[in-house]
Design brief:
The complex is a heterodimer.
Chain A lengths: L1 H11 L1 H6 L3 H28 L1 E4 L3 E4 L4 H42 L4 H9 L6 H11 L5 H8 L2 H7 L12 H25 L3 H9 L4 H30 L2 H6 L7 H12 L2 H26 L6
Antiparallel strand pairs in A: 1-2
Chain B lengths: L1 H6 L1 H23 L18 H4 L7 H32 L5 H12 L3 H15 L5 H26 L2 H9 L4 H30 L2 H6 L7 H11 L3 H32 L1
Helix pairs in contact in B: 2-12, 4-7, 4-9, 4-11, 5-7, 7-9, 8-9
Classes of the chains: A mainly alpha, B mainly alpha.
C-alpha cells in the first residue's frame, strides 16, 4: 500500500522529487538521531559496561573480563529458563484466548463490533500496575475463583503439575503466567483482529460449499490467512513478557523470579553493574536471535 | 438447544475472554469505594466515598500524578513531532537507506523494556548524566517515537496522492498543499499516535525505574512502592478515572472517525 502510493506520486512529479531529494533525509534526521543516541549507543555502553571491573565508589575500568558471562550463566540460568518458559506459555495462552475474540470482533460482532473493540482497547489505557494488583483480590483464597477451583479439583491438578505449591492460586507459577497472559492479551488481539478483518467471508462460504468441515475450513483457509497477525501478535506478546518482572513480583513468590527481576535488582540495589549489564546483554542477544529466526521461518519480514 | 450453543460457541468464547479482560477494571472500580481494614485494599470491608472526596489524601499521590502528566505531555509532544516527520519521509519519498530506517524504527519495539532501561542507565552513567526527570523524559521520547511512526505511517499509506496532485494543479504551493490537504488528512493517524505515546509514557514503570531519582517519583513508581507498603484506596480512584477517561476518548475517537468517513463518502 505504502509502496504504491510512493510510486504513483513519484511518477506524477519526478522533477520536483528529484530536485528536493534532501527532504526525506531532513525529515528523518532528528528522530533517527534521537534513536541512535538513546537506543543504539546505550547498547554499546551496555556491552562495554559488562566487560569492565571495579566498583561504584572507585569507578570502573575496561578489562575485557569475558568470564563475567560464564558467571552470569552459571548463577542465573534458572531465571533465564523461567523467563523463556513463562513468556512462551503466556504467548500460547494469549493466542488460544485471543483468537476466538479477535475472530468474533472481525467476522461475527456486527453492530457490536465497535463496542467490543472499545472494551478491548480501553483497559490497555488504564495503569497496568493497578490492574495487576486487582488480581491479588480476584484470586484471593476467599473469593469464588479459588473456591470453585478447589471444588472442581483444579487446584489439586495445578499442584500436581507443579504450577502451584498449595491449594491457593496466588503467589505461584500459575499466578505469574496468568498475569502475563492477562497483561499482554490486547497485544495479541489487535494484530489478529487486523488480519482477520481482511478475511473475505465468501472464502469461508466457498470452503463450506466445497464440503470442507468447519475444522478443515479453519485449518486450510482461516488460519493460513491470519498468519501475519499470528506472527505479529506472538512477537508483541513474547518479547515484553520475556523481559517482564512486574507479574513475577506482584503475583509470584521467591521461586518464580525471572531474568528481569535479577537485572533490576543487580542494577538498582546490589549495584553490581558489570554482572547486571552482562545479564541484560544476554537477554538482548537471546531475544534478537529468537525473533530473527522466527521471522525468517515465518517468512513475513515485511510485517512491520 | 445444543445446536444453538454450538452455533454461538465462538460468541461464548469471545464473551468469556472479554470478561477475563474486564474483571480487573470492575474490581478496581468497586474497591475505590472501599474502607479497608488494614493498609492493603485487597478485601472489601465497608462502603465509603472517602477516597473519592479526598483523592489527594494519600501522601505523595497527587505529586506523582502531576509529574507523570508533565512527562507524558512533553514526551508525547516531542515523540509525535519526531515520529510524524519520519512517517512522512517513509510514506511519501523514495530514498536510500529505507530498510535501515525501518529496522531502526522496529528495533525499540522488539527490545524488552528491561534492556532499554538498563542500557540507557549505562549510557547516563558513562556520560555522567544524573538520573531524574530529564533522564526519564529522554527515555520516554525514545520508546514512544517508533509507535508514533507506525500509527502515522498506516494513515499516510492510505492517503490518495491524487488529492495532493489536485491541490498542486489548482495552484497551491507545496507548503499550502501540506498544511491544507496532507496534514488534515493525516490528522487521525497523528492523533492516534500522540494518544498512544501519552499512554505509554504515563503508564511506564520498568524503563522509568532505571532512570528515576528519589525526587522524581512518577505515578506508576508510586503504585509500585505502594504495592509493598500498603495500597491507598486513592490509587483505585485514579485507576477508575483512567478507565472511564479511556472509554470516553476511545469511543469519542470512533464517533469522530465515523462522522469523517460519512463526510468523505
Amino acid at each position: 500500500m505504502a509502496e504504491t502510493a510512493v510510486l504513483s506520486s513519484g511518477v506524477a512529479a519526478p522533477e520536483s522529487r528529484r530536485r528536493r531529494n534532501w527532504v526525506p533525509y531532513a525529515l528523518l534526521l532528528p528522530g533517527l538521531l534521537w534513536l541512535v543516541v538513546f537506543f543504539v549507543l546505550p547498547m554499546l555502553t551496555l556491552a562495554s559496561q559488562s566487560l569492565q571491573e571495579g566498583n561504584v565508589d572507585d569507578g570502573y575500568t575496561f578489562t575485557g573480563n569475558i568470564s563475567i558471562y560464564a558467571d552470569a550463566f552459571s548463577q542465573y540460568w534458572p531465571q533465564m529458563l523461567r523467563s523463556l518458559l513463562y513468556a512462551g506459555a503466556a504467548t500460547l495462552l494469549t493466542l488460544l484466548l485471543g483468537y476466538p475474540l479477535a475472530y468474533f470482533i472481525a467476522q461475527k460482532a456486527g453492530r457490536w463490533k465497535n463496542l467490543v473493540l472499545v472494551l478491548v482497547i480501553a483497559p490497555f489505557f488504564t495503569s497496568f500496575l493497578i490492574r495487576t494488583l486487582a488480581w491479588r483480590t480476584i484470586l484471593a483464597d476467599d473469593w469464588p475463583v479459588t473456591q470453585w477451583a478447589r471444588k472442581l479439583h483444579i487446584t489439586d491438578l495445578l499442584q500436581a503439575v507443579g504450577l502451584t505449591n498449595n491449594d491457593s492460586l496466588l503467589y505461584s507459577q500459575f499466578g505469574v503466567i496468568m498475569g502475563l497472559t492477562y497483561n499482554f492479551l490486547p497485544f495479541m488481539i489487535l494484530p489478529l483482529y487486523t488480519s482477520l478483518e481482511r478475511l473475505d467471508p465468501r472464502l469461508l462460504e466457498a470452503a463450506g460449499d466445497l464440503y470442507a468441515s468447519p475444522w478443515q475450513t479453519f485449518r486450510k483457509v482461516t488460519w493460513p490467512l491470519s498468519l501475519p497477525g499470528v506472527v505479529a501478535g506472538t512477537l508483541l506478546t513474547f518479547i515484553p513478557a520475556a523481559g517482564d518482572f512486574v507479574n513475577a513480583k506482584l503475583l509470584g513468590n521467591t521461586q518464580t523470579t525471572m531474568l528481569g527481576t535479577v537485572i533490576d535488582a543487580q542494577f538498582l540495589r546490589v549495584l553490581d553493574y558489570p554482572l547486571a549489564a552482562a545479564l541484560s546483554f544476554i537477554m538482548l542477544i537471546t531475544i534478537v536471535t529468537m525473533v530473527t529466526i522466527y521471522v525468517r521461518r515465518a517468512g513475513t519480514e515485511e510485517l512491520l | 438447544m445444543i445446536a444453538w450453543i454450538r452455533r454461538h460457541l465462538i460468541a461464548f468464547a469471545a464473551l468469556a475472554v472479554l470478561v477475563y479482560m474486564l474483571v480487573p477494571n470492575i474490581v478496581v472500580a468497586v474497591f475505590s469505594f472501599n474502607d479497608p481494614k488494614g493498609k492493603f485494599n485487597y478485601t472489601f470491608n465497608e462502603f465509603s466515598t472517602a477516597a473519592w472526596t479526598n483523592p489527594c489524601g494519600a501522601q505523595g499521590i497527587c505529586e506523582s500524578l502531576g509529574l507523570s502528566l508533565q512527562i507524558g505531555v512533553t514526551a508525547s509532544l516531542v515523540a509525535t513531532v519526531l515520529g510524524t516527520m519520519i512517517a512522512f519521509a517513509l510514506g511519501r519519498y523514495r530514498f536510500k537507506g529505507r530498510s535501515g530506517t525501518n529496522l531502526l524504527i522496529f528495533m525499540p519495539m522488539a527490545t524488552p523494556e528491561v534492556v532499554m532501561g538498563s542500557s540507557l542507565l549505562t549510557l547516563f552513567l558513562a556520560l555522567g548524566v544524573p538520573s531524574g526527570q530529564g533522564a526519564i523524559l529522554i527515555a520516554h521520547i525514545m520508546f514512544c517515537v517508533s509507535f508514533v511512526v507506525v500509527a502515522v505511517k498506516a494513515r499516510v499509506a492510505t492517503l490518495d496522492p491524487r488529492l495532493e496532485e489536485a491541490a498542486a494543479d489548482l495552484g497551491a504551493n507545496p507548503t499550502q498543499t501540506f498544511l491544507r490537504v496532507t496534514l488534515p488528512l493525516a490528522a487521525p493517524g497523528i492523533a492516534a499516535g500522540a494518544l498512544l505515546a501519552f499512554s505509554l509514557s504515563f503508564d511506564d514503570y520498568i524503563i522509568t525505574n532505571f532512570n528515576a531519582s528519589p525526587s522524581s517519583i512518577t505515578f506508576p513508581m508510586f503504585v509500585w512502592g505502594a504495592s509493598a507498603r500498603g495500597v491507598p484506596v486513592q490509587v483505585y480512584v485514579v485507576g477508575t478515572l483512567m478507565f472511564l477517561l479511556a472509554l470516553v476518548v476511545v469511543m469519542g475517537g470512533q464517533v469522530v472517525s465515523k462522522r469523517r468517513n460519512r463526510q468523505v463518502a
